[in-house]
Design goal:
Elements: H1 3-14, H2 17-46, E1 58-65, H3 75-84, E2 88-101, E3 108-115, H4 119-123, E4 129-130, E5 146-149, H5 151-158, E6 168-171, E7 174-181, E8 197-200, H6 204-207, E9 223-228, H7 234-251, H8 253-256, E10 259-265, H9 274-308, H10 311-319, H11 324-358, H12 376-402, H13 406-412, H14 419-452, E11 463-469, H15 477-492, E12 499-503, E13 515-520, E14 531-538, H16 542-546, E15 550-553, E16 567-571, H17 572-579, E17 588-591, E18 594-602, E19 617-621, E20 629-635, H18 645-655, E21 662-666, H19 667-674, H20 676-710, H21 712-720, H22 725-758, H23 765-791, H24 795-801
Parallel strand pairs: 3-8, 5-7, 14-19, 16-18
Antiparallel strand pairs: 1-9, 1-10, 2-3, 2-9, 4-7, 5-8, 6-7, 11-20, 11-21, 12-20, 13-14, 13-17, 15-18, 16-19, 17-18
Length: 802
């Protein structure tokens, strides 16, 4: 390509400003949404650990019980694996823990990782300041009181001061010395979560109130990851890990008999939303590619129509000595300029969209980080898409114009035969692809709307939530119970408070409710498996506060009642699955090494996600299992929830000045956060659907207008022989709708196979009926306008043009 070619191409584009604007904007939007999805895929699958360049090669070792639960690893298990594994270069261990940081009266919530001594070296990170943990600092229980802080924490809490090293940071009541600052952009090794502090795992007993995890194999909670040896496959690593876990099961039968382990790519971690996100994003990327193909089909039709008006120009060039390849090259340069301009608009769209998506508030109890960005890989992806689009929609028009007969083109300017068939095929393909994307959009939007309006089985309005965590505090279960009783009594007597309660978990949280293995009297299993159910520890009055009705039995005994036996409440799904026709009330249930009496049966509700089937759950009483951490629930009149936040903070501060209250939000906002991964694609499709309909109408109009322009003489003959204008219009509309109808049928079948057969969605007759009907109406309108214009021709003028 020469500078002259570029100049000629720019002049040609300047002569068609409206067409160029439509092409660039439509390509920009199509490339932009694809680049946004690609950036998410890149962040989850190819670069799952932010700040670690080659993190896509890391694999997790995930212990798993025989009943299918991922159990995490114990510290001693990690040490055994590190000593014996040969398929990994090295492995690291880390464990997430909530912390309270600061002096009395200035305490705030923070999140940290307890890590092995080789944590930073295996990740191949360099500190932004100071140093990382030394192996000797993680060599013995008690460890060294040192901490590495994140780059963001350094900036926000220490102003980026260079003298931060050797300062003291009070964590869970212990003074730790800051020895280093992690590099900018590194957030930790739990996907999509952001951490402030990294401490030696051997500090666990000091920070977590005498935790025995360093010496007790039954205490689990660590994640293990590492790089495979060169030329080692995941299957080979799995064989290696399975052999070692079998050895541990024989050596330590009390804790490891039913535990094996899986080697998983990092993005398949069973903890966190990444596995679900990767699947959903893969489907979304496929749909967005179909959208881009539809845009390319539309653009190809527009360029073919434009090419018909340039045949005389190209005929003159050929007659003056330009070769066919010269003509084709010049036209491809024009198309590539349009495509790259579209890619530039796409990059700008993607940059704006990623910022808009990450600005959506995500209110959960953990430091979730959903930030993505358009990096050089994303920029390259957009440019490659632009080049491919330019070739897709520009190659055929360029080749056809390069092959015209110059004498025929100069003399008449008429289109060459056979191109009408190509345009019709492109129009049919465009319609089919548009239908598939529109049906997918219908499913996404319908799913979101139905989910949003679903009754979760509990009252979401008028409830304020606030979390606290007394982990690391001294004191026994009685002290935790007294704290809860005092706090609830003060809350219940406060103005505007209708009810108050505590639970260990909140339904529809992004990380889900915990599950537990149990046995219940009257039920026997014929296999070696285990019964399990979700669990939640609650105070009396919680079910009434949440609007979850008891269908049998009664609520828990008061927290202060020492005489009542340990109690449990189960839901209706539990009774149906595990008790069948047996009477549940008064029946014994064994879990947590204790026996509980079933005191009541609660109505089913949602626990982990919208759309889940009825799931068994066991509610335990806070009286029997006081928890150091909890979610405060305060009910008031709807709309007044946020006004109670200062009251909750004030009461907790009076009881314990060092205890932070965090993650304060309404239950309505909390439920909305569960919908974020449904809301984002629904919002995207709510914008893309109308846009795609407009593009489809534009492409159909272009083909119809061009076909009519080629048949001016035919129109004149029909009118001269007595055909009415209405009949001429109907003739052209029906002729084009036949092509559109074939595209609709093909797209309908493709959408059915993709969405129902492959993805397993249930058939929605309304979507499969309404979307084709809307597309046909839009197509009929696009065909009607050029046909109506042609029908108004003076037949004698039309015949003289021949």
């Amino acid at each position: 390509m020469t500078a002259r070619d570029l100049t000629l191409a720019l002049r040609a584009i300047a002569r068609m400003p409206l067409l160029a604007a439509v092409v660039v904007l439509s390509l920009g939007l199509g490339i932009g949404v694809n680049t946004v999805v690609f950036s998410w895929m890149q962040a989850i699958v190819w670069q799952p650990i932010r700040g670690v360049p080659d993190s896509g090669v890391f694999h997790l070792i995930e212990p798993k019980t025989d009943n299918g639960l991922y159990a995490s690893a114990s510290w001693l298990e990690y040490r055994d694996l590190r000593e014996r594994l040969r398929s990994f270069q090295d492995i690291i261990a880390f464990r997430m823990t909530p912390l309270y940081v600061g002096k009395p009266g200035e305490v705030e919530r923070a999140y940290g990782l307890l890590v092995s001594g080789n944590y930073f070296s295996v990740l191949k990170l360099e500190p932004a300041l100071g140093r990382f943990l030394r192996p000797d600092e993680v060599a013995r229980p008690g460890g060294e009181p040192v901490v590495v802080i994140s780059h963001d924490y350094w900036q926000t809490h220490f102003g980026g001061a260079a003298d931060v090293l050797d300062r003291t940071l009070r964590v869970n009541g212990r003074d730790l010395t800051i020895v280093g600052v992690a590099p900018r952009g590194f957030l930790g090794t739990v996907m999509r979560l952001e951490f402030d502090l990294w401490m030696p795992a051997t500090l666990a007993p000091a920070l977590l109130n005498g935790s025995r995890e360093l010496e007790d194999r039954s205490v689990r909670g660590y994640s293990i990851t590492g790089r495979l040896q060169p030329d080692t496959t995941r299957e080979q690593a799995q064989t290696d890990v399975s052999g070692i876990m079998a050895e541990l099961a024989r050596t330590y039968p009390e804790t490891n008999t039913i535990v094996h382990a899986e080697v998983l790519p990092y993005w398949q971690s069973p903890r966190g939303p990444q596995r679900f996100l990767a699947t959903a994003l893969g489907f979304l990327q496929a749909v967005m590619m179909l959208l881009l193909l539809a845009v390319c089909g539309n653009t190809a039709n527009l360029m073919l129509s434009r090419a018909s008006a340039r045949q005389r120009e190209m005929g003159l060039r050929l007659a003056l000595g330009s070769g066919p390849w010269r003509i084709a090259g010049l036209l491809l340069v024009e198309n590539m300029i349009l495509a790259l301009a579209g890619a530039a608009v796409g990059v700008a769209t993607a940059m704006w969209a990623t910022k808009a998506l990450t600005s959506v508030p995500l209110r959960v109890g953990f430091p979730v980080n959903v930030e993505t960005s358009i990096d050089p890989a994303g920029l390259a992806f957009a440019i490659v898409l632009g080049i491919l689009c330019g070739l897709t929609f520009g190659l055929v028009p360029a080749v056809q114009l390069a092959r015209i007969d110059p004498q025929t083109a100069v003399r008449s300017g008429m289109a060459l035969g056979g191109r009408s068939l190509l345009r019709n095929v492109l129009m049919g393909v465009q319609v089919a692809l548009a239908l598939v994307v529109l049906v997918a959009a219908g499913f996404f939007v319908r799913s979101f709307l139905e989910t949003r309006d679903t009754d979760p089985g509990f009252r979401r309005e008028g409830v304020l939530l606030a979390a606290y965590d007394r982990t690391g505090r001294s004191g026994n279960a009685a002290a935790a119970r007294i704290f809860a009783v005092t706090m609830l009594d003060r809350l219940r007597t406060a103005p505007d408070v209708e009810a108050a309660a505590i639970s260990s978990s909140v339904p529809l949280d992004i990380h889900g409710l915990p599950s537990r293995v149990f046995t219940v009297d009257g039920r026997t299993r014929t296999d070696d498996g285990f019964d399990q159910a979700l669990t939640n520890t609650i105070t009396p009055g919680y079910l009434d506060l949440m609007g979850i009705r008891l269908t049998a039995g009664s609520d828990f005994a008061p927290l202060e009642d020492p005489a009542a036996p340990p109690q449990a409440i189960v839901n209706e799904a539990f009774v149906r699955r595990y008790l069948e026709n047996l009477e549940p009330i008064g029946r014994s249930l064994q879990a947590r090494g204790r026996t509980f009496i079933i005191a009541g049966v609660a109505r089913d509700s949602l626990y982990n996600a919208f759309g889940e089937p009825p799931t068994p759950i066991i509610y335990f009483s806070y009286r029997d299992n006081p928890s150091r951490a909890g979610e405060i629930h305060v009910r008031t009149r709807p709309g007044a929830e946020a006004r109670l936040a200062p009251l909750v903070r004030s009461i907790v501060r009076d009881l314990d000045p060092e205890l932070p209250v965090y993650n304060v939000r309404t239950l309505t906002d909390h439920v909305e956060s569960n919908l974020i991964f449904r809301r984002i694609p629904a919002r995207m499709f709510s914008v893309l659907g109308p846009m795609l309909l407009f593009l489809a109408a534009t492409g159909i109009y272009a083909v119809s207008a061009y076909n009519v322009s080629l048949r001016t003489t035919e129109v004149g003959v029909r009118l001269a022989l007595g055909a009415t204008r209405a009949r001429v219009v109907v003739h052209f509309v029906v002729e084009n709708l036949a092509i559109v109808g074939l595209g609709v049928m093909a797209g309908w079948l493709l959408a059915f196979v993709l969405i129902v057969d492959i993805l397993g969605f249930s058939v929605e007759p309304a979507i499969f009926a309404i979307v084709p009907a809307v597309l046909l109406i839009v197509a009929a309108s696009a065909c009607w306008f050029p046909a109506r214009k042609a029908s108004r021709l003076d037949p004698w003028v039309a015949l003289r043009q021949e």
